[in-house]
Amino acid sequence: MLRLHGILGTAHDAAYAGLIHDLEHRDVIELLFVPPSDAGRKRFRLVTDRGTDCAVSLDRDEDLVDGAVLFLDPERAIIARFGEQEIWRLKPTDQAAALKLGWNAGNLHWRVRFDGETLHILLDAPLHTYRARILPLLESGEVEELVEAAPCPPRVTAHVTRAHPPPCGEGGAAWRLRRLAQPGRGYHRGVGRTPPS
Questions:
Q1: In 48-160, where do the E strands start and end?
Q2: Per-residue pLDDT reduced to its tens digit, 117-174
Q3: What CATH fold (topology level) applies to the domain 2-84+168-181?
Q4: CA angle 117, 33, 64 (to 5 degrees)
Q5: Could you give the CA distance from residue 188 to residue 69 in angstroms, rounded to a whole number?
């Protein structure tokens, strides 16, 4: 379990923008979806979309906001998101359409999960922004929308496959946990290090 104390700032803060942008391109940002029942609490325990078990504690004067950066180091970030993870289910009609859809999902860095011939896209923004990016595929009938965006079941939130595979070599949750176990790792108030400038 990773203990996170306090909020560093938000994902849009200038102090973190460069590092978060770099981490996003390397596909190592983890999202911690905070349900409405936990949004006002000062202590809670949740699992990120990559499976990291997090125990979060906030000071009395801190309020959790959507996009709050809870952990940041050169290897990954953990960012809070309000609400439940929503997924958008798409099914290509043939192999050519599947290739086009896969190319778009990878090129746009969408977080995805595969379920047979169905592609589950884990939404981080309003659905209409995703639809707009593949509108020609939807309008031509090459890709079907199976269901409107719906809350993601807990097991999907904990086990996510990305459109881009992790870097070669040792990867996954075990690597991240070993890395975090090293003394002095991470930019969060619980460790007492200062954010990058």
A1: 53-57, 68-73, 76-82, 86-92, 111-115, 118-123, 143-151
A2: 999 998 877 888 899 999 999 999 999 998 654 444 443 333 333 333 333 333 343 3
A3: HSP40/DNAj peptide-binding domain (2.60.260)
A4: 160
A5: 9
